[in-house]
Specification:
Oligomer: single chain
Number of strands: 12
Number of helices: 12
CATH superfamily of the largest domain: NAD(P)-binding Rossmann-like Domain
Helix content: 40-55%
Strand content: 15-25%
Largest sheet: 6 strands, parallel
Order of helices and strands: HHHEHEHEHEHEHEHHEEHEEEEH
CATH architecture of the largest domain: 3-Layer(aba) Sandwich
Strand order of the largest sheet: 3-2-1-4-5-6
Number of domains: 3
Radius of gyration: 34 Å
Shape: elongated
CATH topology of the largest domain: Rossmann fold
Length: about 325
């Protein structure tokens, strides 16, 4: 389409130059009169000759009209096609997006398409989860269409925008805006529209933790803390860091036999008694204590008490075989 428009414009320019030069050489006109005569000839506006033409000049004008009219029509049709096709494509794109949004149910809303929001979308797509993106910046419009992502361009903290994205039918909402205060308001608004929706919010302000908790957000994530934890594990427990990377980040390449188990402890024991530290390919990632404290640096002497929760990652066959012998310690 654009190539055709460029070609038509170039041909029209060639005829314009040829006509101007022809009148200057054949009739001895000054360049301005020659250019003006060429313009009214090619545009077929019906003006008369600005000067008397010689027989040769009239013959030249005849050929200029024949060639120029065809070129002018070609240029006009190319311009019309470009304008109409662009508008039609936009209209059809909006219609497809509206139908996609209306068809969504039990989907996830990603509010904010910055670095965090974009990565969340990639993970949801990799998992085959239905989603819709809410983003205020229109520069992502073509990107959403190319990716086939249902979208709403608008302010995520407005009721109309959330409803356009189907918040009342949604399963969860990611409040991934760059402003923590907006994420708090977004969580409150989403919960008021759909009380059962699960909201996970991004928090960049440690002092806002209590406000987030009061906003009924289901989970709060501090990107800086998550990044620090990943770096810590990569240094102190690189095997666990690599496995977490595979499980959480590269799930598309994760073997099906890898399991993540959250083991609930019901009797006093240790990692050594459970045998976790002796199983090849199985890693104890963290212990969440009954009082809420989390321990990441674990050894075989690490004690486990009733009410504690142990996160374990490993091969399904190894986990099932080993833990089946230790069910007395597990809830």
């Amino acid at each position: 389409m654009w190539r055709r428009l460029f070609l038509a414009t170039a041909l029209f320019g060639v005829f314009l130059c040829l006509g101007t030069i022809g009148y200057v050489l054949l009739e001895g006109w000054d360049p301005l009169d020659a250019f003006y005569m060429t313009i009214i000839t090619l545009s077929t506006v019906g003006f008369g000759e600005i000067r008397n033409l010689s027989p040769v000049g009239r013959l030249f004008t005849s050929f200029l009209i024949l060639g120029g009219i065809g070129t002018a029509c070609y240029l006009f049709s190319a311009i019309t096609e470009t304008v109409v096709s662009g508008q039609l494509s936009q209209v059809l794109g909006e219609r497809r997006n509206r139908k996609a949004l209306e068809a969504l149910s039990e989907h996830y809303l990603v509010c904010g398409y910055g670095k965090v929001g974009r990565r969340i979308c990639d993970l949801l797509v990799a998992e085959g989860k239905p989603l819709a993106v809410i983003e205020a910046d229109e520069k992502y419009l073509e990107h959403f269409r190319e990716k086939g992502l249902p979208y709403v361009i608008g302010n995520a903290i407005e009721k109309e925008t959330l409803e356009a994205a189907g918040v009342r039918r949604a399963k969860g909402l990611f409040a991934a805006l760059g402003d923590s205060s907006k994420n708090i308001y977004l969580a409150l608004l989403a919960k008021s529209l759909c009380p059962e929706i699960r909201v996970v919010a991004r928090n960049e302000d440690e002092e806002a933790r209590l406000i987030f908790e009061a906003s009924r957000v289901d989970a709060m994530v501090h990107p800086s803390k998550v990044g620090a934890l990943r770096m810590f594990l990569a240094m102190v427990r690189p095997q666990v860091a690599d496995l977490i990377e595979e499980v959480v980040v590269d799930r598309a390449d994760l073997p099906e036999e890898i399991l993540v188990e959250d083991l609930q402890i019901k009797q006093e024991t240790s990692l050594e008694e459970l045998g976790i530290k002796t199983i090849r390919g199985v890693y104890a990632v963290l212990v969440k204590r009954a009082n809420g404290r989390k321990d990441f640096v674990l050894d075989k002497k690490t004690r486990l008490s009733p009410g504690d929760s142990l996160l374990v990652i490993g091969h399904e066959r190894d986990l099932e075989a080993k833990l089946s012998e230790k069910r007395a310690f597990l809830a």
